Amino acid sequence: MGLAFRDISKHYGAVVAIKQAQMEIEEGEVRAILGGNGSGKSTLAKVIGGLIGRDSGEILFQGKPIDFKSPKDAKKHHVIMTSQELSLFGNLTVEENICICDVPVKGKFTDRKKLKEEAVTILKRMHLESLLGKKVEELAANQQYMVELAKALVQKPKILIIDEITSALYREDVEIVDDIIRELKKTGCIVLFISHRMVELYAMCDSVTIMRNGETLGTYPMQEKTEDELLSLMVGRKIESYHGEGKHHQGTKRDVFIRAKHIPIPSYGTVESLEIGKGEIIGIAGLQGHGQTELIRALYGVSGEIELEIDGKAHKLHNAKQAVAQGFAFISGDRERDGTFQERNLSENIAAVQELVKHKKIGNAREILDSFHVRYDNPGELITSLSGGNQQKVVVGRWLCTKPRLLLVDDPTKGIDVKARGDLHEVFAELAKEGNAVIMISSDDDELVSITSMAETSRVIVMYEGKVSAVLEGDAINRENISAASMPVNTMPQEGEKKREAGAVE
């Protein structure tokens, strides 16, 4: 026997977080834990990782009971947890963070040579040598999550819990994680893998346990259930996931209402242009760090002055406040840094947006929370008391209630469950149907294929080294073309693509 959960329960007052959870995982097995936001996945992970105690039940590892009182206690037994809530120190270097749980010493001082050697070994294993010597606060979000994983691996886990860290990763990062997990399986390490990205679950996991409302409903071999079957089990009713390939509209004329002729991409010293149509959904794709985020932040006025033509009139935006006045909204996927006031309650987090759009009435906190199916106790509780996915729903919901003319979203569905992601896509599509525009970055190519298929007019713009490498429309919008354009070769562009002018209007 590897790892076994027997009737694990956890309550927070009247709220039942886990109810008699049952699970068995063999050594060398990768087990997916799938469920909606608030289903108890992360709570269960925190119980075994020593972050929280359980109210009842028993956990067995190799036939012996375990009951960790703290993460430090768990780590002594090589039970390691990584999560969306990063446990990194921004003012320390990458190698210092990697070895922070067991800093090598020489006498009374840190053994810097050994520390660097240990960090270099794991960074080479993850193809991340370029991060050596950098402070964590200087890194992009996906790089920070990779360092979080490196920190776990250096501790030689026997049980590794991966809780949603891949939601912040790009395709090339996920491929590295896949390789690492295959290596761990060979050593007999048990991996508990929590993710809402179905492609990752099918690629990496041997089996899947479904959770709903704190209960473990069943465990199945990963390849025996289709995505739609798993989704239906997860939400408790028949659901069909939406796959967009082959469903895009062809040749729809674009009614342009925003023209941006000079969009700066500072990290590459490049400039791009874009024309945005009414009712259009534009997906932005590419490998991490190739200018996608800079493009939409520039449109939002946070990268310095930008000149735009809106409804035929010239405008200059100097800051985000002026962008909001024009009906723009921006949602970041990095909710901790850009999205939430963590020391404030739900009502105050929602009121922050109301203060910016005083000319509109967006509704009270409870109305917004309920309309976006946020799981919460009362609007006066701290936003940090919610699960990560529910926090993201708050961030997204408060802006969508303003009905923006141009919605700029940077990987907004990280940490949101599959059903909630579909609901969010429908809201974006409805916003476009009303004549507004949505520009959305996603690290998940399948998501861009899906969301763009839901609008009458849509494109996927792929960026490479600060320039647009391809513009895909109609049937050309598929995972293969997005992937190919992310790493251009001489055969690009493929049929149906417009190579250079991202704003070209037919």
Automatic annotation (TrEMBL):
The record, for CDD domains, names: ABC_Carb_Monos_I, ABC_Carb_Monos_II
Recorded GO MF terms: ATP binding; ATP hydrolysis activity
Transmembrane stretches, by residue range? Answer: none
Under the heading InterPro entries, the entry gives: AAA+_ATPase, ABC_carbohydrate_import_ATPase, ABC_transporter-like_ATP-bd, ABC_transporter-like_CS, P-loop_NTPase
**Which PROSITE patterns does this entry report, sorted A to Z?**
ABC_TRANSPORTER_1 (PS00211), ABC_TRANSPORTER_2 (PS50893)
Short name of one Pfam family = ABC_tran
Q: Where is the ABC transporter domain?
A: 3-238, 252-490
Instruction: Give the UniProt keywords, A-Z.
Output: ATP-binding, Nucleotide-binding, Repeat, Transport
First and last residue of the signal peptide: none
Report the domain of life of the source organism: Bacteria
Kindly give the SUPFAM superfamilies that the UniProt entry links to this protein.
Answer: P-loop containing nucleoside triphosphate hydrolases
Q: Quote the protein name from its UniProt record.
A: Ribose transport system ATP-binding protein
